[in-house]
Amino acid sequence: MKSLLAFVIKHNFIFIFILLQVVCALLMVRNSHYQGSHVLNSSNEVVANVYQTAANTKEYFYLKKENDRLANENAILRNFLKSNYAILPVKEYQRNDTIYKQQYSYISCKVVNSSVNKRRNFLTLNMGSQMGIKQDMAVMSSQGIVGKVTDVTENFATVMSLLHKDNYVNCQLKRDGSYGPLVWDGGDYQHCLLTDIPTHAKIKAGDTVITSELSGIFPEGIMVGTIESFERRQNESFYTARVKLSADLKKVNHVYVIKNKFKTERDSLEANTQKQDDDGNH
């Protein structure tokens, strides 16, 4: 207490000065309408700025939670897209009597690790078999395709990125349906090559590339990228196109794992057919 009193006495002129300034300000506000309104407006502006700063700070800290909420909401909405349903005939003799059966469903996940600067690039997701994720499921972001699931544990899954030398995804030109495998040549992370495009295809720079039903894991029509250039290389009877990927694999944070509910049945049928054909040839 004595120290505080000594401090006040030592710096009394400063406290007197502040007191006089406050008194002057009060007199100006009370006796002058212009000065009073000016001070009031200034104080309101200061308070508003403080509130705005506080709101922005709060919004920043809640941004992660909001992103997670939107990703889950998008996954739910994607499950209702018409492209996820296969049209099945109810009765053979009624050509127009059809029903829709859901073929694809989506699981929202977060990317917890990824790479783009290797020959074999992978992503790690924060969900695994407990959420129904299995090997060979397709993965996409809100911008375009990302890759396919390779390994799964209870709580995590690894994804073979498009930027992997062994990853091939059948894609097609939106313009005329011409298709070919999308591969990565080990160049920069924003481009892949669409190969084996027939020379009769109507292709030009700027064309949209989308997924093909022939991929076996992706629904048809998901965005892949755009054609930047194409060429017919020497001794080849098809075009090779350079594709600018629509998904930025260096910045992807949230993805959707796509479950094809008909895949197991289809794979089993095709394997059985191939086996019968091989046995017949022998």
What is the fold's blueprint, element by element?
Layout: H1 2-10, H2 12-31, H3 33-61, H4 63-78, E1 85-89, E2 98-102, E3 104-114, E4 120-125, E5 138-140, E6 145-152, E7 157-164, E8 169-173, E9 179-183, E10 191-198, E11 208-211, E12 223-231, E13 238-245, E14 254-260, H5 263-281
Antiparallel strand pairs: 1-2, 3-4, 3-14, 4-7, 5-6, 5-14, 6-7, 8-9, 8-11, 9-10, 10-13, 11-12, 12-13
Helix pairs in contact: 2-3
Describe this structure in words.
The protein contains five helices and 14 strands. The chain is an alpha+beta fold and 282 residues long. A hairpin with an 8-residue loop joins β1 (85-89) and β2. It starts with a helix and ends with a helix. α2 (12-31) crosses α3. It is elongated and about 110 Å long. Among the domains are: 40-77; 109-261, Rod shape-determining protein MreC, domain 2 (Thrombin, subunit H, Beta Barrel), CATH 2.40.10.
Strand order of the largest sheet: 3-4-7-6-5-14
Number of beta-strand segments: 14
Largest sheet features: 6 strands, antiparallel, barrel
Secondary structure tally, helices: 5
Briefly note the CATH topology name of the domain at 109-261: Thrombin, subunit H
Shape: elongated
CATH class of the domain at 109-261: Mainly Beta
Indicate the proportion of strand residues.
Answer: 25-35%
CATH superfamily of the domain at 109-261: Rod shape-determining protein MreC, domain 2
What's the gyration radius in Å? 31 Å
* Helix/strand/pairing category: alpha+beta
Low-confidence stretches are 87-97
The chain-level mean pLDDT equals 80
